[in-house]
TrEMBL record:
It comes from Olivibacter domesticus (Pseudosphingobacterium domesticum). Residues 315-482 form the RagB/SusD domain. Its main location: membrane. This is Starch-binding associating with outer membrane. Belongs to the SusD family. It is found in: Cell outer membrane. Keywords: Cell outer membrane, Membrane, Signal. CDD domains: SusD (cd08977). InterPro entries: SusD-like_N, SusD_RagB_dom, TPR-like_helical_dom_sf. Residues 47-232 form the SusD-like N-terminal domain. GO terms for cellular component: cell outer membrane. It holds the Pfam family SusD-like_3. It comes from the Bacteria.
């Protein structure tokens, strides 16, 4: 076994150690774990420091590939959650384009790697849970560690179910050589595990951690949010209300606070926003990622040398009202940094085209095909290739919009309006019901549409769009309207609410292979 020795550190602002212990499990095969530790299954669990290192490894596997992170929550997840909707549009050939125009197949790399990395988190969590009793430690400390591991396992299972529905349900460590053809568990069975894990985390995790213990740990509020969202996915709004209301109670007691300026939630000077419930944190010198590279604008003076690999579609951007300040939180209508040619010091002007415009007004102008959000490049502190941007997994603005959805389902649009308008008002957008241009939604159906729109405007490229559209019954309608606006065929059907299982897995799993025939465009 190849071993690269690392220093074991407490979990701090940066989760920098990706530890893969011997005996890890992929749902079928193909995990091919890399080792960044001198721990093995023979010596890994003998001290509390070993347990701390293993826990750090679970956190780190949310943003794997040390030193050059771009997988799972470091970027790849946006391709399966936001690109396969009206939100994302790719100018890169290959798999990104196939996702953004709904021509993907089961061999798409984003299916493969997201699946593998989700199960990597689960595998690492299972290993810690199975071995923690080997170490002597205080019960409260042990339960806090278990609470974090179980929350992270539940988060990954939630992401798997959002994408694929029934998946292999693994709660113990297994030898990969003995793990072929694990049966697919129903969504209800997986949700039962998610609920158990979240309930344990709620009972054992603090509302806040002491600063010296780190800033990136899961908390009671994170587990409450995940459990509430699980019930929302199954349209059990009565139970969802129980848990979402508890998060809002934490807010009322000052644990969370909605930042008065939506832009400041994304400032690199504001590493941990007051409204962040759970996030993945990076530091350039330790575990920096390619986040701004992927999400930042191309050929831009303000944020130079970025790729705009994950671009927001013009069709989605145009849905914002001109009076909504969030519409300006994108890069467009700017002069590029690179010189156009050897005879000038000026760059091309990147212009937002009018609808239907296909020809630039001058040869010094390029029409934008998509736009880059400022969320992952706003007020950059460090402009390095591997940056220190925070990925917000759950934040209080999302929870407030969840509350609007819950109240609409249980009590109607009047009950939801307060929460919907709180998010709009914070952004500086016109509130519903306060002007003729924005009348208050008068029916439950009209409020659903307003919530769909608002969740998109507020949570753009935060891994929420596809689950939101599916849950709220708008996936086919909105996705097909987007395709038609792009001049493409409206191919999205109800069967596409679940992705095909990754080809490498389906080849070894008859149940997956049979399901894939029904899930392809």
């Amino acid at each position: 076994m190849t071993r690269i020795k690392t220093t074991i550190k407490e979990l701090t602002l940066s989760m920098l150690v990706f530890i893969t212990l011997g005996g890890t499990f992929s749902a079928c095969t193909k995990l091919e774990p890399e080792l960044y530790s001198d721990l093995t299954t023979k010596n890994a669990y003998s001290t509390e420091s070993d347990i701390d290192a293993a826990l750090t490894g679970i956190y780190a596997s949310l943003s794997p590939y040390p030193g050059d992170a771009y997988l799972y929550y470091a970027g790849y997840l946006v391709m399966t959650t936001d690109y396969t909707t009206d939100m994302g549009f790719s100018t890169a050939a290959g798999d990104p384009t196939k996702l953004s125009n709904f021509t993907y197949d089961d061999n798409n790399r984003y299916f493969k790697f997201n699946w593998q990395n989700m199960y990597q988190v689960i595998s690492n969590a299972n290993m810690l849970i199975a071995n923690i009793d080997n170490v002597q430690m205080a019960d409260d400390r042990k339960n806090q560690i278990l609470g974090q591991a179980r929350f992270l396992r539940a988060l990954s299972y939630s992401d798997l179910v959002d994408a694929w529905g029934p998946v292999p349900l693994i709660v113990e460590t297994k030898n990969p050589a003995e793990s072929y053809n694990e049966p697919l568990a129903s969504v209800e069975r997986v949700d039962s595990l998610i609920a158990e894990d979240c309930q344990f985390a709620i009972a054992n995790l603090p509302e806040k951690w002491a600063a010296e213990l780190g800033l990136g740990r899961a908390t009671k509020g994170a587990a409450l949010t995940l459990l509430g969202k699980m019930y929302m996915r199954s349209h059990d709004y009565v139970n969802a209300k129980v848990y979402i209301d508890q998060v809002l109670e934490l807010r009322a007691r000052g644990v969370y606070k909605l930042n008065p300026d939506f832009k400041n939630e994304w400032s690199d000077n504001n590493k941990v926003d007051m409204g962040m419930i759970f996030g993945v944190l990076h530091e350039p010198a330790l575990n920096g990622g390619e986040i701004t590279n992927h999400f930042g604008p191309s050929d831009n003076r303000e944020v130079p040398d970025r790729w705009q690999y994950y671009g927001v579609s013009l069709q989605f951007w145009r849905k914002y009202a001109d009076s909504d300040p969030r519409k300006q939180f994108f890069y467009y209508n700017y002069e590029g940094r690179a010189e156009r040619d050897a005879s000038t010091t000026h760059g091309f002007y990147y212009m937002m085209p009018d609808e239907g415009q296909t020809k630039p007004p001058a040869d010094t102008v390029k029409l934008l095909q998509n736009v880059a959000t400022k969320k992952y490049s706003y007020e950059m502190v460090n402009n390095s290739y591997l940056d220190g941007r925070t990925i917000q997994v759950f934040r209080i603005a999302d929870v407030i919009l969840c509350k609007a959805e819950i109240e609409n389902e249980l009590g109607g649009p009047a009950q939801a309006l307060l929460y919907l308008n709180e998010i709009r008002g914070r952004a500086g957008a016109p509130k519903y019901g306060e002007s003729a241009d924005f009348p208050a939604p008068a029916s439950k159906e009209a409020m659903v549409q307003a919530i769909v729109d608002e969740r998109g405007f507020e949570l753009v490229f935060e891994y929420k769009r596809r689950p939101d559209l599916i849950r709220l019954g708008k996936y086919e309608e909105i996705s097909n309207a987007y395709l038609q606006a792009c001049g493409l065929q409206p191919v999205v059907t109800e069967k596409m609410r679940l992705f095909p299982y990754p080809l490498d897995e389906a080849r070894l799993h008859p149940e997956m292979a049979a399901a894939n025939a029904q899930r392809l465009p």
